[in-house]
Structures are given as C-alpha cells and as structure tokens.
From TrEMBL:
<dbReference type="GO" id="GO:0016787">
    <property type="term" value="F:hydrolase activity"/>
</dbReference>
<dbReference type="InterPro" id="IPR000639">
    <property type="entry name" value="Epox_hydrolase-like"/>
</dbReference>
<dbReference type="InterPro" id="IPR029058">
    <property type="entry name" value="AB_hydrolase_fold"/>
</dbReference>
<comment type="similarity">
    <text>Belongs to the AB hydrolase superfamily. Epoxide hydrolase family.</text>
</comment>
<feature type="domain" description="AB hydrolase-1">
    <location>
        <begin position="33"/>
        <end position="315"/>
    </location>
</feature>
<keyword id="KW-0378">Hydrolase</keyword>
<dbReference type="Pfam" id="PF00561">
    <property type="entry name" value="Abhydrolase_1"/>
</dbReference>
<protein>
    <submittedName>
        <fullName>Alpha/beta-hydrolase</fullName>
    </submittedName>
</protein>
<dbReference type="InterPro" id="IPR000073">
    <property type="entry name" value="AB_hydrolase_1"/>
</dbReference>
Amino acid sequence: MEHLYRSPKYKGTTTSRGLKYHYYFSPAVSKKPTLLFVHGFPSFSAHWINQITFFEKEGFGLVVPDMLGYGGSSIPKEPEAYVHALQAKDLIDIIDEEKLGSNVVAVGHDWGSVTVSRVANLYQDRFLGFAFLSVGYLPPSTETTYEELRNQWAAALGYVNIGYWEFFASPEAADIMTRHTRAYNDLGWAQSTGMIKYNFCPVGGVQNFIESESSTPRATYLSKEDMITTEKLLARGGWSGPLSYYRNEITDASREADKAIPAENYTIHKPVLFIGTAHDPIVVPALMEPLIQQFCTNSATTTVEAAHWAFWEAPEQVNAQLYQWLKRL
C-alpha cells in the first residue's frame, strides 16, 4: 500500500471552496467509465488498492481521493467543513478538473457511502450510477436525531450498534485516541466480529477498551506493512479531522445541510448497486436494504461473506460483484 502513495499518478487540486484534495488518477481506456472511489472512517485512498489494481487492469478510469481530514487532503478545523453535501460538490470539482463529463460511477464505503448518497441527491445527472459497500444509500435526514436513530436500530437488532458515535463526537476523543492509538487500532481492525459487537458498538465501549489499554488480535487480511502505513498516515493527520464526521451527526450540521435538498431528489433513478457485508455487526445489511428498496428505482442488492472492511477481507468478491454490475450499465 505504501508504494501506491508514492505513485506519480497522484495529483492535487484546490476545489471551489478553497480546500486541497490529494487523489489518485488514472484515465480510462476505450471510453470506459471512470470509477470514483470514496472512502470512509478511518481510511485513505490507498486502502482501495485491491480495487485500483483490478479495475485499472480492466481499463476503467479511476479517481480515488483522500477525503477531507485524511492523507494529503486538507484537514479543516471546523467540523461543518466536513458536511457530506459540501464534500459532494468538492468531488464534482475534481471530476470537472479531469474533464470527465458524466461517464462516471461513484462507489462509496462507510461515511464515503453517505457522501456518495449526497452526490446522488444533488448531481444525479452527472453519473452513470452509484455503488455502495457496507453502508447503503442513505437519504437526507432532516429530523431524525442520533439518539432516535440509535434507538431505532437497537430495537431492530436487539443491541446498540452505533453507541461509539457519542465518544467519537466528544471534545476529548481525539486526544484520547492519540494517546491510545495502539489499543484503538487493535479494536478497529479486530479479527473477531464479536469483539466489535461487544466492545465497539455499545455506548462507552470504545473509550473503556482503549483507555484500559486492552488488546485483541488484529485481522489477518491486513498485512503488518499495510497496518504500519495506516498508522503513519493517521499519526500524520491526527484524529480531529476524521472525527468531525461524527460531530456533524451528533450536532445539527448535517441535518441543516440536508434540509436544502428537495424531497424529489431523495429518489435515485440511476442504477444503484448495494453490496452488503454479511458479517458486519455495525452496518447490518437488513438495516440498509429497506432504504434501497424505497428510494432506488433501479437497484441490485447482493452480499459478500465479510465484515466491515470487505474491500480488504474479500476483494475478489467485491471486485467481481462490482464488475458484473458495471458491465450491465
């Protein structure tokens, strides 16, 4: 993964709101679509390495940015700068910089799926379709608070799955995670999905685990070298930027931005692919699928036998599902 970051294919641009984005760019061959890969938390453009390698060989164009708060992109201090609707416009600026027109497919994972959702709400005509990994299409949320969403999902699952949002959104989280990075990375990339369910998901679980310097084996699909690179990149940029995504969900920032999106834009008519992660205790496919059915008129849904980090754990499955869907566009 580290060698990818040294690739001359990385570029930089400044968007219309004055923010710098660092991104991997590879032009398409024979008029094939360009794939815009949008990562989530805590992640980087190079985490898509298995998809970059596969789809580049197949002739697809690639735009793979470090999202705000990560890698070589800007790290604004104001949480409001990370609002998904604003980053959606940033992505359009990058696409325009590369003169890609509308021959583009956006692919999101984790918070990147929420950003891609806002891209679909605001700029649907600029894309051939939208694909979502783990986190599905999420329509604008103008009224539902974090507490209401947490309780709704807990009632459906029988356990709290997003209790960690409260710690991540707290003022002290960045400092605590900086002081206990090893323990957090153990938990965040734990081999055991049960460890995630019982120590990551509950309210207070993450903070208790890392402040006690607990440990657990990390997933074997992430090499030691790739984990070292990830830790270096996180240390370089710090936690404050990445945690801003959660602060906006706990406060009204995201809801206020979503209020500007017309209700008719909630429905997505372009082709949509949702790849659910069968063993993810946080983003359970059954929570995502009803929204896909309700708001996406031309959708395909599938699952892969993996947990949250499916693009690492099951890259062959993810690539195959995405490739087969792309061939039908």
